[in-house]
Structures are given as C-alpha cells and as structure tokens.
Design a protein that fits this description.
- It is a single chain.
- The protein is of the alpha/beta class.
- The chain has 11 helices and 11 strands.
- The chain has a 7-stranded mixed β-sheet, sandwiched between helices. Strands 1-2 form a two-stranded parallel sheet.
- α4 crosses α6, α6 packs across α7 and α9 crosses α10.
Length: about 300
C-alpha cells in the first residue's frame, strides 16, 4: 500500500536479526534481498545517524530485550565505535530468564532469576515457583540475558510493588514514579550502591547487579527510598563503565568518544537526567535522540543508518 501511495518500488528489505519477530518473518517471505541488523546496533546507529558530525561514540543501549551478536538476549550494552563498526565494550552480569517471553508480563520471574543466579534467599509466593526453579536449574526455556529492563522488573517485584503486569513496563514505571515522588520530597540525592565492575574472558566490562538484592528486599527501608537507591546505583554504574572505557581508549585514540543514550529504559526521566548530570560532571559530552524516538519506535531509522554504513 505504501509503495503504491508513494510511487516507489522496494528493492531490499532491512529487518531485525531476531528470526522470531513477525517483521523478520514477513521480510523473509517477501522474496526480496534481506539484510538483518542487530537490535542494539540499530539503537546505536539511530543516535549516531542523527548526529553525523560525531565520529566516535560510546552508546549505552538499555532496554528490555534484543538479540545480540553472540545470539544471547542483550539489553544493557555499551557499544563503542560508529555505524557499521560497533564493538561491545561493556554490559551487565548475565542471568537466565525462566519462561522466556513470559517474564515481560510477570516481573516476579525476573526477581526469582536474580535470586537463583546469586544464591540470594528470596522466596516467591507464586504457586509455580518450585517447578520453575527446576526448569531454571536445567536451563529449560531459560535464555541468557543482560537486560537492564528485566533488572527494573526484578526491582519492582523485589520491593513488593508488583508481581504481574497489565501492560508493558508497568513495574519499571511504578518504580520510577515512586522514586520520583520521594526525590521531590527530599532535598538530598539518594546514595547509590557501588556495583562491582570487572572484565570477563572476552574482555567485556561487566557490572554486577547482585549487591542490589539485599537493599531491594530490606523491609526496614521505605520502598520509595529503595526505588531511589536503585535508580542512583544504575546511574553510577553507567558512569563507572564510561570512566573505565575512557581511560582504556585514551591509550589508543587521541579523539575521545562522546556518550549516547538509546533504548527504552532511557524513557525513564529520573534515570536519564541523573545519568546526564553524572556524565557531564565528569567531562563527558552526552547525547539523546531529538528527532527520532529513543525506544523501538526509532529502530527502523537505525536499521537504515546501519545498513547504509555497511553497504558503503
């Protein structure tokens, strides 16, 4: 219909690399040449495409889920480079999601996953928890992920805010609202928890979320205070990744990178404003999309930008 309306003829199709997406399946059935773009590469290219004057980026792509180049589910990535040449430089400690796609509407599953992954004593009152734990132990329908979006889901469940969502990102939105209300009432910035940051075997810097679990379940603390601490801890974790990567990069590149924020997690205003404050206080230049949506609504533009860079 669009081709007929605009009098154009499609020659190639660009789609997400995840083969299970309906758009990817449609592209494959089209009979046209198909070029696949990794989800977070598109998020990063969306931002760098909007600001082409910058030639070296560190784009933090935080969202719910997207297929990564190692075929695991990414969602908390820091990508170095520029369109067509992204290097995964930092991420979060991975964990396994029990039940796959069900976790998006059942935040308690993410909370259980973090608890089981770190041997933390938190018990869910959900009737299927025991059976799910057996599946998790055997890694049955439990894909690995580094998703910050799922960390937000888990935080909402661990604080007792929600176990099941009626719509996408309900848990993270409730967590942000609670933290924002508390922030407005307080004259002091909440203290965050310093999260360990270490390189893995592939040289990727990994932030370990496990120190957050005791705080999130501490009933002696007000829930709003826990929500604020969670936001502050993640903002500081992003800054720590940027600092260590800047130090490493300074040995090899005279041209410093600028920092970009992309992905649905950065629709969280409280988190995003705090991240920008911390980055700018440490002499980073920081960019957000201005004309293209920061979440998956902007992916198509990022896919085109990424394809253009690769094809040329």
């Amino acid at each position: 219909d669009l081709q007929e309306l605009y009098q154009v003829q499609t020659q190639k199709i660009i789609c997400d690399s995840h083969p299970g997406y309906s758009s990817s399946r449609w592209a494959q059935r089209s009979g046209l040449p198909v070029h696949r773009v990794y989800h977070h590469h598109a998020h990063a290219a969306c931002l760098s495409g909007e600001f082409p004057e910058q030639d070296r980026w560190l784009v933090c792509c935080w969202d719910g889920v997207g297929l990564g180049s190692d075929q695991s589910l990414w969602g908390g990535e820091a990508l170095l480079g520029n369109r067509g040449h992204w290097q995964r430089a930092a991420s979060f400690k991975p964990f396994h999601l029990p039940g796959g796609e069900k976790v998006g509407r059942e935040p308690w599953r993410s909370a259980a996953a973090l608890s089981w992954e770190s041997a933390f004593d938190w018990q869910s009152d959900q009737p299927e928890a025991a059976l799910l734990f057996q599946a998790w132990k055997n890694k049955l329908n439990c894909p690995s992920t580094s998703s910050v979006g799922r960390l937000f889901d888990a935080a909402a469940a661990l604080t007792g805010l929600i176990t099941h969502s009626n719509y996408e990102a309900q848990g993270p939105m409730l967590l942000e609202a609670l933290a924002s209300q508390s922030q407005n009432k307080s004259q002091h910035q909440s203290e965050g928890i310093k999260l360990p940051l270490n390189q893995d075997e592939q040289g990727i810097w990994r932030t370990d979320w496990s120190p957050l679990l005791p705080m999130l379940t501490d009933s002696r603390r007000d829930i709003a205070d826990r929500a604020r601490c969670f936001h502050e801890s993640l903002a500081q974790a992003l800054l720590e990744q940027a600092l260590v990567l800047r130090e490493m990069e300074s040995r090899h590149h005279s041209n410093p990178f600028v920092v970009g924020l992309s992905g649905g997690v950065f629709q969280n205003r409280l988190l995003t404003e705090r991240v920008i404050d911390l980055l700018e206080a440490n002499d980073f230049r920081c960019y957000l999309p201005e004309r293209v949506p920061i979440n998956d609504a902007g992916l198509c533009y990022g896919q085109v930008m990424e394809y253009h860079a690769v094809a040329n």
